[in-house]
Design goal:
146 residues
Length: 146
């Protein structure tokens, strides 16, 4: 499956290289784990499921979240902070081919599931923005009218 990175997600991903000195996190390892999750999405597409990925049921669009934690076959050493979630949405082109657009990444360690509502809205807004710049694609709607 084609996987596209929204420019703002890409900026966030690049910002992880620095991390915070003294926080005990190997940010280069975290980036490698994110890369492994993105490769798994590219390889498996919609077949990628629990525990690496889950649907975001509150979203209007077909939005899913990649999980860095808990440890999985894809991220076997990811057993602590940061508890990253990476939101992506499915789009379809004019020929009926699906692709994924990676939209938002963030650490939900402090907020738990309260992290989702503002970031899901941000992901949906970014998906709309991405589709406006790529008019051959449209977001796949899970519920409601487009």
């Amino acid at each position: 499956m084609d996987v596209f990175l929204h420019p703002l997600f890409n900026r966030w991903l690049k910002s992880l290289a620095g991390g915070e000195e003294g926080d005990g996190i190997d940010w280069w390892e975290v980036r490698a784990e994110i890369a492994a999750l993105l490769r798994a999405l590219e390889t498996h597409g919609r077949r990628l499921g629990d525990p690496e990925c889950h649907e975001v049921v509150s979203a209007r669009y077909d939005i899913h979240a990649l999980r860095r934690t808990p440890p999985t076959e894809t991220t076997p050493y990811a057993d602590g902070a940061p508890v990253l979630r990476i939101l992506f949405g499915f789009v379809m082109d004019d020929a009926g081919h699906e692709a994924a657009v990676v939209l938002v990444g963030g650490d939900k360690t402090a907020l738990g599931n309260r992290w989702y509502p503002p970031h899901v809205q941000q992901a949906q807004d970014r998906l709309d923005q991405w589709c406006r710049k790529h008019p051959d694609y449209r977001p796949i709607v899970r519920r409601g009218d487009l």
